[in-house]
């Protein structure tokens, strides 16, 4: 198999990966495995391992090695409370780090490849948005699934996965076509660009998940900072979103109950809310083993232990009830998870890694604000932002997107100052 054929097969696998991340996780694993395998074979045949010296890869590998150390299956000594299972889960995390590298330095090194990568992400976002509207208007998605019990729109999924994923993808999908429309002469294309922006944000509100709305709002701020021509449409989108939110008691009562009612209750009594209980238990785990934590996925094993149910007296937080959902599968926040899994060293390494990846995504962006790169920066920042309710890091079905975003973003940054969508350069 020659070099071109290896690349072509890997490229096809990468384009199929988003479909797997949406609906068939084993397919996504196969795509990632094929890409990684061919990338390593190509590196070996070319005798080119220079990518292993990239600072971000070294940093991510150090974090991974420390987590591996903390997860050694010796619970009698305070290591690896999830046993061999946790250790194996840490070992396979490297596949996602390697996948990002393969995308950056091999798969997405041409403008055409990067354009197709963007297109698959845009289609994924469109699919989620269309299914959310179908479910809102008809009561069921294409698979016959109704809204979730709390009123959230599940989109094309059977459970409420659509909100955060839609917010992560929204600006990646939306900014390039919107900026292309706004750059065209005449009022009709510009009106279409404004309407597309409004539709994207209104959909985020109607989905009815708090993190979706919060992350979409964060994306608005970042997009307005880098793309001056988009500021007025974004202000209009923000105003329209606010109007929809105010109108939710009439147009979608379940959405209002989720976004307003439940949020208000959690804020007013945070320490005894499910999120407050999770924060308390996981923080106690970290402080009681500050050097190496308790190992990957230790939270699900240790949560009910009385020694972690002492509250946080320094913050005035009493012991938790441990009956509101605190003992879930993970601590619901990447940084708290890093602390409970691997102590202060794990938290510090993870924080530096996330900050460095965010910086890599935005380097040179102010001089050359390509809409795709701005969208990818937002996609990455909505994952790395520390004040958020998250999935477990790095569970494939959500974090697979994060590593895909990073690989495409770094490849775009390496290719700058030549934007993928040259006609949408910001000339304002």
Give the gist of this structure.
This protein has 428 residues and is an all-alpha fold.
Structural class assignment: mainly alpha
Principal-axes shape call: globular
Oligomer: single chain
Low-pLDDT stretches are 422-428
Cα-to-Cα separation, first versus last residue: 48 Å
Number of helices: 16
How many domains make up the 3D coordinates? 1
Topology order in helix (H) and strand (E) letters:
HHHHHHHHHHHHHHHH
Kindly state the mean pLDDT as a whole number? 89
Content of β-strand = under 5%
Q: What portion of residues is helical? A: 55-70%
DSSP strand tally: 0
Largest sheet composition: none
Question: Any idea what the radius of gyration is?
Answer: 22 Å
Describe it for me?
This protein has 428 residues and is mainly α. It is 68% helix and 0% strand. It is globular. The chain has 16 helices and no strands. Helix 6 crosses helix 8 and helix 15 runs antiparallel to helix 16. The longest helix has 29 residues. It has one domain.
List the helices and strands and how they pair.
Blueprint lengths: L2 H21 L1 H22 L8 H16 L12 H9 L2 H14 L3 H28 L23 H22 L3 H21 L2 H17 L4 H21 L1 H16 L5 H15 L10 H4 L31 H29 L8 H14 L11 H20 L13
Helix pairs in contact: 1-2, 1-6, 2-5, 3-5, 3-14, 5-16, 6-7, 6-8, 6-16, 7-8, 7-9, 7-15, 8-10, 9-15, 10-11, 12-14, 14-15, 14-16, 15-16
Entry keywords:
428 residues; mainly alpha; 0% strand; globular
